[in-house]
Design a protein that fits this description.
mainly alpha, 2 domains
């Protein structure tokens, strides 16, 4: 995936959750759009989000509220994978950079708003959906890899020590991690040796282990 300054690779489950959020945000924008035909591109009916029996102005108020609740999360989701939320907007003959997700209603209500400008906003969402779909597929394959789970389980004690702050002294932490790394290394070598014995190449592996 595309990297960003604060990039951290999202897990499979994070990708799924973010994809749902992006899809909901996109649908809300499509229903909020004043141009004819946009609502037909939504992947869920409006009733999934608000009461369709409400008067028109109340429907728009409800949609605005839901967009407001999601906009900060969506902006963060896009920036996380290196998609800039800054666009160039021209007003009174002057161009200015605007973070569309920090000023979304200013952008949507601007006097020079056009269907093209609205499409630019949707394009950012679609790009995000594409990136997270790729990430979900990659992470999905990783979940099927037994080496991934072995690696994860070996990291669990380190995650617990760091997360729970069980040891406050940094030097003691470093010593614990070094000992743990040594134990893991020894276990991996033992597993490798036993596996080699099954394959009948024990002597070769034994020679390799001596190098350690």
């Amino acid at each position: 995936m595309k990297s960003a300054k604060s990039f951290s690779r999202p897990t499979y489950w994070e990708c799924k959750r973010i994809l749902n959020r992006l899809a909901d945000f996109k649908n809300l924008l499509l229903y909020y759009c004043p141009y004819a035909g946009y609502e037909k591109r939504a992947s869920k009916p409006l009733s999934e989000y608000i009461d369709e029996k409400l008067p028109t102005y109340e429907r728009y108020e409800n949609i605005e509220e839901k967009i407001s609740n999601l906009v900060e999360f969506v902006g963060r989701d896009l920036r996380r994978v290196g998609i800039s939320t800054i666009i160039i907007q021209e007003s009174s003959g002057e161009k200015e950079n605007i973070d569309v997700f920090l000023n979304i209603f200013q952008y949507l209500r601007s006097d020079n708003r056009t269907a093209r400008a609205f499409d630019m906003l949707l394009d950012l969402i679609n790009r995000g959906i594409g990136v997270y779909e790729v990430g979900k597929n990659k992470e999905g394959w990783r979940l099927l890899n037994p080496l991934y789970w072995i690696s994860y389980l070996l990291k669990v004690p380190v995650i617990i020590i760091k997360g729970a702050d069980l040891v406050s002294d940094e030097e003691v932490k470093k010593t614990i991690f070094k000992i743990y790394a040594g134990v893991v290394k020894a276990l991996m070598l033992i597993i490798l040796y036993l596996f080699a014995d099954k394959l009948g190449v024990r002597n070769l592996i034994a020679s390799i282990i001596k190098l350690f």
